[in-house]
């Protein structure tokens, strides 16, 4: 299908009101679409199952032509695990020429995930958007520490850009949008939501700052069932579960479980780092640990410099083996 239209991520606030950056992007998209022939503005809103009439009306009043609502009563709040995936599925289902996303915490995660999955470029934190040669998106952004601005012409589709809040003005217009309700893989979503929430609820109560054993996961564990394996091993070892900032941003831990400079400093007898690279900001939080075991598939990962025991290998295999053998090894240890 020929890419057509401008797709905007319709981010909602916690109270389900529309974030101002969305209205600003829709307003800007109205100007862009006049410069390309026959384009529609589509806004994709992801959220709980509520009445979306006012949201659709409001988005219409800024110029949205279509509002796709991906809603499910199992969705209660934003989660990095499924929102980016759902937005990407919408972008695949209605392939747009251009994707515009607010450069918010959510927006940045969604934009980078979508660009990777759609194998396209992304211009982040744009200060202006226009249509350039061959009707391609022309994005302007600061470069060289803000001393220069660069005009970037994206030649792959969809052409993606993120924009900070209040870079553009919002302006209403007389308009009526078409509403499309969409459900994407509800079973898959349900499994992820239920599993992750259950794991966090069960394990977040254990304080990482005072626990004897802490097992923490990083970006490497934020895929497939990496964190499920961590939570499973932690249960056996009576350990607390923590994580890197990446794990927090992807929704696998709570803020109270984040380890490092902007999280908690920990001093357990045993610290197990799983799929964590060992950035300085993380290391500053684990310096006072007794023994450190690191599991990473990159033998050059910095975490190994701080580890008493380094396991170079795939975390999924290593965690599964540790979990399977833990009872046997523990029983043998008790018999000695
Ligand atoms: C001001 C500031 C404050 C910050 N504060 C913190 C903080 O408090 N805490 C914190 O953690 N970070 C903090 N950060 C972020 C920090 O700089 C790093 O970005 C972050 O720690 C990286 O997290 P990570 O190690 O999980 O991810 P990555 O750096 O992406 O590392 C993932 C690792 O997983 C490994 N891996 C991938 N797949 C597998 C697999 N299958 N098996 C085994 N290994 C695998 C990879 O080899 C890689 O080493 C801060 C940054 C800034 C700028």
Any chance you could write out the topology, listing elements then pairs?
Elements: E1 6-9, H1 20-33, E2 41-47, H2 53-62, E3 66-71, H3 83-93, E4 98-102, H4 105-117, E5 122-126, E6 128-131, E7 137-143, E8 148-153, E9 159-163, E10 178-182, H5 186-203, E11 213-217, H6 226-237, E12 240-243, H7 245-249, E13 270-274, H8 280-283, E14 291-296, E15 309-312, H9 315-335
Parallel strand pairs: 1-2, 1-4, 2-3, 3-10, 4-9, 5-9, 11-12, 11-13, 13-14, 14-15
Antiparallel strand pairs: 6-7, 7-8
The chain binds flavin-adenine dinucleotide.
The site of flavin-adenine dinucleotide has 26 residues, from helix 7, helix 8, strand 14 and helix 9.
Structural features, described:
There is one protein chain. The protein is an alpha/beta fold and 336 residues long. A hairpin with a 5-residue loop joins strand 6 and strand 7 (137-143). The chain is built from nine helices and 15 strands. It folds into two domains: 6-184, Rossmann fold; 197-335, Rossmann fold (3-Layer(aba) Sandwich). The mean pLDDT is 89. Residues 218-220, 244-246, 258-263, 275-277, 279, 281-282, 295-298, 301, 314-316 line the site of flavin-adenine dinucleotide.
